[in-house]
Amino acid sequence: MFKNRTFTKILLSLATVAVVAVAAVGGTFANFTATPTSIASNAFAAGSLSMTRSGSGAIFSASAMKIGDSATGSVTISNTGSLAGTYTLAGSSSGSAALANQLTLKIYADVDNSGTPVYDGSLGGFSSSSLGTFAASTGSHTYYFHVSLPTTGTDAADNAFQGLSATETFTWSAVQA
Length: 177
Description:
Elements: H1 2-27, E1 51-53, E2 70-79, E3 85-95, H2 97-102, E4 104-109, E5 119-122, E6 128-134, E7 140-148, H3 155-159, E8 166-176
Antiparallel strand pairs: 1-2, 2-7, 3-6, 3-8, 4-5, 4-7
């Protein structure tokens, strides 16, 4: 009999602890809710990178050149976009490679015949040149081109250029700075 009572008290104590534990655990859960808040007028607009050039047509043209002749021209490139850009000038020759390689090309930035040229070498050897960063909306630079036909040093070698022609295409490109 004594065992039965002790056993019953233990079972009742365990049942009471279990009920209190379930009540405590069940009572700690809560669902929170809030009213949504809207914030309007968050606007975004992409910038632009755009360029223009002065004039139209070729920068220079020289026909019937002879040894010692030169041709000059200039062009102004402007960044008219709303973003700064890193600019590059590329060149591509066609026609007589022999003549293009004999013609010398000097390109100056902003001041003609002054400072270090952007490029100084053969017309046929020009592939590309970095021009730096142009500021947004106001960045512009004028480039001065000088092409000359120097002597090779002998009449026979110079005569080999008679009747040949070469052309050069210059392409400016820009990427966002």
